[in-house]
Amino acid sequence: MEEDKSRSQSGSTRDGSEAGSGEKEKRAGQEEKWSDNELLYEFGFSTFILSLSTSALVHLGELPDPITNKKEINLQLAKQTISIIEMLKEKTKGNLSKEEEVLIDNVLYDVRLKYIKSSD
User: Which residues partner with 28 through β-bridges?
Assistant: First the structure.
């Protein structure tokens, strides 16, 4: 029976040996590329909530899809995104700053209202 030497995502094979040098160089290049494209701003909770809000607005047809550049309504994805924001609000209760609480409440109010209007 042959040893299974398939590679894990970490680069080592199942038998513990290291991946080939070509793969190591490729990973190093990818890591270097990532560091060249580091975020220009701090990515915090508020930014994450605003990102989800933008996603919900795209699915509600309020903003154009960044790929197609068309405004299209997808209520199922909008509802899913709103549910994710609601879950985050519940799971982070008591751990948010006042500003973050106000932001998440305002975002939820806005996207829920637009969801109701879009579903009519």
Answer: none
DSSP-assigned states of every residue in 38-67: --SS---HHHHHHHHHHHHHHHBTSS--TT
Contacts of residue 102, Cβ cutoff 8 Å, sequence gap at least 6: none
Alpha helices (H) in 1-120, listed in sequence order: 21-36, 45-59, 75-91, 98-119
How far is the C-alpha of 56 from the C-alpha of 94, rounded, in Å? 25
Q: Where are the domains of the chain?
A: 45-119
pLDDT band, very low/low/confident/very high, at 91 (cuts 50, 70, 90): very high
Q: Which carries the bigger pLDDT value, residue 103 or residue 18?
A: 103
Residue whose token pair is 């997808």: 74
Residue 20, pLDDT score: 56
Q: Look at the pTM and tell me if it is higher than 0.70.
A: no
A 10 A CB-CB count for 45 gives 16
**Encoded amino acid at 99, one letter:** E
